[in-house]
UniProtKB/TrEMBL annotation:
Residues 13-499 form the Major facilitator superfamily (MFS) profile domain. One of its GO terms (molecular function) is transmembrane transporter activity. Keywords: Cell membrane, Membrane, Transmembrane, Transmembrane helix, Transport. This is Putative transport protein. Gene3D superfamilies: MFS general substrate transporter like domains, Multidrug resistance protein D. It comes from Shimwellia blattae (strain ATCC 29907 / DSM 4481 / JCM 1650 / NBRC 105725 / CDC 9005-74). NCBIfam families: PRK14995.1 (NF011571). The keyword Nucleus does not apply. It comes from the Bacteria. The chain crosses the membrane at residues 12-34, 49-67, 79-98, 104-125, 137-157, 163-183, 204-222, 228-246, 266-289, 301-326, 333-354, 360-385, 406-427, 475-495. Pfam families: MFS_1.
Length: 505
């Protein structure tokens, strides 16, 4: 009986950590189809909406490093329980938010809780699955939940928005968290921590400030909404803080996080794959949500349903990719996943979603499968290359790459769409200068303005906005294709000399 329990316990723990990882993954994208609703209900501007979406991934990217160190110090079970409690309370606060500022703050707290949960889940897998083959299958399931949860976010958000009030997208997290905490308390084994592992919150805040300043500066610099005298100093301060953080960690005898892990060639490749895959996947979903609702008139639920092939393919690819990594090696799966993702984006950039839905669905299924495979390959690379005693730190690095990629995906795709939309739109004659600037800033602003003008002018503006956005989305998808194809080539050569290590490479 004890032997049977010893065999079943890792898989039972995997079920628990996957269950708590589901809302964490979904919350990264659940608001993508909710931007029109939030704009109306909370009176949020387009820039505020981007921060509501983006703050979760950006705060999480900065906090996973210290939380990974905290996990090494107190053990993954304690970290999982603490993070789950904070995530549940923050979900409740977000569901009851009376305004945009409250919601941004609640999303920030959600990110802190998520930053505790994810390294704990990866550390549990790395610790409890000693067999490489079983660990790769477990990581495949974990990766499928991550990519599938992020992919299903828009569909879940659309369903809840169509049937309940907007806060329900956060309220559904609470019962899941309560079940997870109960199961974790009684069924997950206690891990021996390392009390000497330092956790320096000052350094964590330094990293978060650096990330937020850099992202803010890049957004405003590319959008041109602030003078260079404001943007460039903010960018310089952010870069200086990031440099200072890295130098401080390298100089410490017992750093909060082992920055030297980034110097490992396989780990670095895994980080780059995770970042680029999430940039393209999250950016694609955000762009598609706007394309389908503004250009083709879909409801939030219908827009989420149209993207179902991405979600289904992402959900089933993880376990398959885990087996492929074990049998074919990391290099083939990683480069192949990036290559197929690039080809799918190239096809989507030339696809008319209204007249070619079957072609769009086939390409989206290919995208979901290939991106999830690349994400699994990056996870396997990082976790296999890291020593067991640094499992939480390696999990934190992996999660940082995921979340920073998600945040950058929203920022970069949003900016690319905004700039290309402004350049492509042909405004109707006779619009006053303030109205012209409003209409050219984004498709959301243009469609809102079209409803306020006379029928003929409004129809002309709406048609021009739809045409400009379609051109912009083709440009964005083409750029993503070039990026992914280039990364596939780089990964293939970077891992050319990698030898098989524990069956992972």
């Amino acid at each position: 009986m004890r032997m049977l329990w010893a065999r079943l316990r890792p898989w039972l723990t995997l079920f628990i950590v996957v269950l708590v990882y589901i809302p964490v993954a979904i919350d990264a994208t659940v608001l993508h189809v909710a931007t029109p609703t939030l704009s109306t209900r909370l009176g949020a501007s387009s820039n505020t909406l981007l921060w509501i979406i983006d703050i979760y991934s950006l705060i999480m990217a900065g906090m996973v490093l210290p939380m990974g160190a905290l996990g090494d110090r107190i053990g993954f079970k304690r970290l999982l329980l603490t993070g789950s409690a904070l995530f549940g309370l923050a979900s409740l606060a977000a569901a009851l938010a009376p305004g945009a500022g409250w919601l941004i703050a609640a999303r920030g707290l959600l990110a802190v809780g998520a930053a505790m949960i994810v390294p704990a889940t990866l550390a549990a897998i790395r610790t409890l699955f000693a067999d490489t083959g079983q660990r790769n299958i477990a990581l495949g399931i974990w990766a499928a939940v991550g990519s599938g949860g992020a992919a299903f976010g828009p569909l879940i958000g659309g369903f809840l928005l169509e049937h309940f009030y907007w806060g329900s997208v956060f309220l559904v997290n609470v019962p899941i968290i309560l079940v997870v905490m109960l199961l974790t308390r009684f069924l997950v084994p206690v891990q021996q921590g390392r009390p000497g592992q330092p956790v320096n919150l000052r350094h964590a805040l330094m990293l978060i400030a650096a990330i937020l300043l850099i992202i803010y500066s890049l957004k405003t610099l590319l959008k041109g909404t602030q003078p260079l005298g404001v943007t460039l100093p903010a960018l310089a301060v952010g870069a200086l803080l990031l440099w200072r953080f890295i130098r401080t960690q390298l100089s410490l005898a017992r750093p909060m996080i082992d920055i030297r892990l980034f110097g490992h060639r396989v780990i670095f490749c895994g980080i780059m794959m995770a970042m680029v895959a999430m940039i393209t996947l999250v950016g694609f979903e955000l762009m598609m949500a706007q394309e389908l609702q503004f250009v083709h008139g879909f409801t939030p639920l219908a827009a989420g349903a149209f993207m179902l092939p991405v979600m289904l393919a992402s959900g089933i690819s993880g376990p398959v990719a885990g087996v492929l990594v074990s049998r074919c090696g990391l290099r083939r799966v990683a480069a192949g996943g990036m290559l197929l993702s690039g080809l799918s984006f190239a096809g989507l950039s030339a696809t008319d979603f209204a007249s070619q839905p079957y072609q769009a669905w086939a390409l989206m299924a290919l995208l979901g499968f290939s991106v999830a495979s690349a994400l699994l390959a990056s996870t396997a690379a990082i976790m296999a290359a890291a020593p067991p005693e640094k499992a939480s730190a390696a999990g934190a690095i992996e999660t940082m790459a995921y979340e920073l990629g998600a945040g950058l995906g929203v920022a970069l795709f949003g900016l690319l769409l905004s700039r290309s939309f402004t350049a492509a739109i042909i405004l109707p004659d006779g619009l006053a200068a303030p109205l012209s600037r409003q209409a050219a800033s984004s498709i959301g602003e243009a469609m809102a303005l079209a409803g306020q003008l006379d029928a003929q002018t409004g129809q002309h503006l709406a048609q021009a906005a739809r045409h400009a956005f379609s051109l912009s989305h083709s440009l964005a998808l083409g750029a993503a294709s070039v990026l992914l194809l280039g990364l596939a080539l780089a990964v293939w050569f970077a891992l050319a000399r990698s030898r098989r290590s524990e069956g992972a490479f």
